[in-house]
């Protein structure tokens, strides 16, 4: 019974209980764990007084840290969950496009004529070349070229014979 620190009372007999292992790092968690390991309170008649069960979610250090950060961000006015209304998002998008247009307009007005000419040449070079359409052919003339040549050769052969 040397390593048993506490005794648990179940019914009429006392059963030795080993202490729960301590995996936590903070004193606050250690204190809460020790408070939960106490012997159950009993009435003078020997009945165990019911005790509210511990909520592991509320006692979780990660949950408390997250809750602390959310409260701080709410107090400072930062929205960490990106909960903007559709209207706010649309207004921001329009404001951004308007600012980009104004910045483009400012850069366009500050450019010299040489820079404008260079940009125009670059734009023309990037465009696909326009194919020149041969207007000598009539749209109703759909006979292939080799048929015309063949007809001319046949006519020459017939005249020679």
Automatic annotation (TrEMBL):
Residue ranges, compositional bias (Basic and acidic residues): 86-99
Record's keyword annotation contains Coiled coil: yes
InterPro entries reported in the protein's UniProt record: FAM107
Disordered: annotated span: 81-105
Protein keywords: Coiled coil
Organism superkingdom: Eukaryota
Protein name: Protein FAM107B
Natural source organism: Amphibalanus amphitrite (Striped barnacle)
Gene: FAM107B
């Amino acid at each position: 019974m040397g390593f048993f620190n506490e005794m648990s009372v179940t019914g009429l007999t006392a059963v030795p209980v080993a202490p729960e292992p301590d995996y936590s790092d903070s004193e606050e968690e250690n204190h809460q764990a020790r408070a939960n390991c106490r012997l159950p309170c009993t009435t003078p008649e020997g009945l165990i007084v019911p005790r509210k069960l511990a909520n592991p979610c509320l006692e979780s250090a990660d949950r408390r840290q997250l809750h602390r950060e959310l409260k701080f961000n709410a107090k400072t006015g930062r929205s960490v969950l990106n909960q903007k209304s559709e209207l706010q998002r649309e207004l921001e998008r329009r404001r951004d496009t308007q600012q980009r247009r104004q910045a483009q307009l400012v850069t366009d007005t500050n450019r010299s004529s040489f820079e404008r000419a260079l940009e125009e040449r670059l734009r023309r070079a990037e465009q696909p070349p326009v194919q020149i359409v041969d207007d000598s052919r009539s749209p109703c003339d759909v006979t292939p070229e080799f048929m015309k040549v063949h007809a001319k050769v046949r006519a020459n052969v017939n005249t020679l014979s």
